[in-house]
Amino acid sequence: MDAIYAQGLSRSFGEKKALEGLSLSLPQGSVFGFLGPNGAGKTTTVKLLTGLLTPTRGECAVFGLSPRSDAEKVHALCGVMTESARMYPQLSGLANLIFFGELCGMTRAAATERAGELLKKLDLTDSEKLPAGKYSTGMAQRLSLARALLGRPKVLFLDEPTSGLDPESAQAVNALISEQAGQEGVTVFLCTHQLRYAQDLCDSYGILDHGFLLAKGDLSHLAKLAGCQSYASFRLASGEELAGFERKNGWLRRPLESQEEMPGLLREVVREGRCVYEARIETPTLEDVYFSFIGQSEGGTES
């Protein structure tokens, strides 16, 4: 059974189409990066999947449950962290988590134990008694993630979870997200603009623009769809050139049809007596793929 399923999912606000014909299926334990510019329809999608909005057309399910007819069960399965999540500013971080835990049906003892566990993992133990209103942006982000994880959700919806975090805090958040997916089997639905971050964390992606899902799949699949090229790149002694290669950022490179070409190409360069300092295969990054699709979309070639 898919953790998340959508077929033809659409939502309009008056004449404005916020989401049109979204179809996808995500297995349990996957980390899915949902990418797109502001206004693409990412937040609308999350609200539809969690039952906060009703679709204009189409259907969706979380572990086979409809967010419309099984709203209470779906809410129990999901943890949601948004950029606009709010805590009670006068309550301490710990008290906030205990309150929301009890609100979800946990006993005070269970909520206290779970809150302490999450605060420790997110490096917030030293500030657990500080009023949440005095938390820095980064601390508030981590507290919001702790709140989303309180009920041990099977699906975790995250909106820019590392926004405003210093590198150490971001690392702690990433480690916890990876742990949830890898060890706990939690399915992570990650909305982000940080493409390098998404490439490190996610195993598959969806690229959304103007309400349309342009493409979905792992990075290799998306690169093929986008026509993004891999390159054989060499760094040679100063002044040396190679026929058929272009120079870019101090490297000589040429397109590769497949990685199997690289060993033969390297042998050929060495036979020519070239002084090879470094050789590498440059594969398309998520940034390359993303901007290729977004550029096509802006050019009117949505698919």
Could you give me the name of the CATH homologous superfamily of the largest domain?
P-loop containing nucleotide triphosphate hydrolases
Note the main sheet: 6 strands, mixed
The largest beta-sheet arranges its strands as 5-6-7-3-8-9
Task: Say what the CATH topology of the largest domain is.
Answer: Rossmann fold
Family: Belongs to the ABC transporter superfamily.
Keywords: ATP-binding, Nucleotide-binding, Transport
InterPro entries: AAA+_ATPase (IPR003593), ABC_transporter-like_ATP-bd (IPR003439), ABC_transporter_ATP-binding (IPR050763), P-loop_NTPase (IPR027417)
Protein name: ABC transporter ATP-binding protein
Present the secondary structure layout.
Elements: E1 4-13, E2 16-26, E3 31-35, H1 42-49, E4 57-62, H2 71-77, E5 78-81, H3 93-103, H4 108-121, H5 137-149, E6 155-159, H6 167-182, E7 187-192, H7 195-201, E8 204-209, E9 212-217, H8 219-226, E10 230-236, E11 246-248, E12 251-256, H9 262-271, E13 276-282, H10 286-298
Parallel strand pairs: 3-7, 3-8, 5-6, 6-7
Antiparallel strand pairs: 1-2, 1-4, 8-9, 10-12, 10-13, 11-12
Helix pairs in contact: 3-4, 8-10
Domain ABC transporter: 4-235
Keywords: ATP-binding, Nucleotide-binding, Transport
Protein name: ABC transporter ATP-binding protein
